[in-house]
Amino acid sequence: MLSDFINFDNAWSVALFTLINFLVIFCRYVLVSSIFQFVFTVLLKDQFKSRKISEALQKPGQSVKEIQWSAITSGIFTVSGVGLIWLFENDYTAIYTDFSEYGLWYIPLSIFIAMLIHEAYYYFLHRWMHRPTIFKKFHYVHHNSLVTSPWTAFSFHPIESVLQALIIPIILIFIPMHFAAILFLLTLMTITATINHLHIEIYPKGFTKNWFGKWWIGASHHSLHHSKYSFNYGLYFTFMDKWFGTESPDYMPLFEKKTKG
Ligand SMILES: [Zn+2]
Ligand SMILES: [Zn+2]
Q1: Fewer beta carbons under 10 A from the terminal one: N or C of the chain?
Q2: In Å, how far are 15, 164, 204 from 179, measured between CA atoms?
Q3: Could you report the per-residue pLDDT of 65-96, keeping only the tens digit for each?
Q4: Where are the domains of the chain?
Q5: Phi and psi, residue 236, nearest 5°
Q6: What is the sign, positive or negative, of the torsion defined by CA atoms of 163, 164, 169, 175?
Q7: How many other CB atoms are found less than 10 A from the CB of residue 3?
Q8: How far is the CA of 89 from the centre of ligand 1 (A)?
Q9: Ligand 1 mean position, distance from CA 245 (Å)
Q10: Residue pLDDT, tens place only, 199-213
Q11: Mean pLDDT of the chain
Q12: For residues 202 and 44, what is the distance between their CA atoms, to the nearest angstrom?
């Protein structure tokens, strides 16, 4: 199927496929960030005014720098994606293309399993990146954004982007996933990264008390990571921070405060 789109023996075919992948990944970031920026800071500005995490201003030129770093990140995610296709074409992955192979019920389960593995990997990677020597080497780029925005979502130093990109092919060597499930996961990753950096709490009042919201990270949770550094290292879920005692004590009060109106 994919051999119709890419021939790894032809350098031009690889270059064209890589370019198209880069455009898809970078444009997806630009599109998702633009939509969230427009909806919550223009269209529904008044309704979400009191849900703004803080009134602190961004640094001058911050968004431009974030977009530049995110373009480099998109390039690195592209290389990882093309590498993944090469692994697939050479039968090194557990990726499958026939929905009937595992049944439809397995699609959401496979996404959930991949998210749990990704969560654990990211949590420990993130804590390691906060060691002072490592932080100064590359994680500082992401934390240059004290007041985050949708554009902060993929603003990483290239070393951090490589470390983040590695886990997806590794998961797919071991966990069977349909291509549609992979695309869903990658898009969900972009959307949640944007929501978590929005600097506006968009989840409803009482969300952190229900069975799902209790375990789900949003803007209040992640903004505390950018302002306090030593709490809230999670990616999608709160359970690693809860288990390892790194959830900020300010999280619940901040969420309540931002959603009370
Ligand atoms: Zn961090
Ligand atoms: Zn962040």
Answers
A1: N
A2: 22, 20, 32
A3: 999 999 999 999 999 999 999 999 999 999 99
A4: 2-203
A5: -105, -40
A6: positive
A7: 10
A8: 35
A9: 16
A10: 999 999 999 999 999
A11: 95
A12: 11
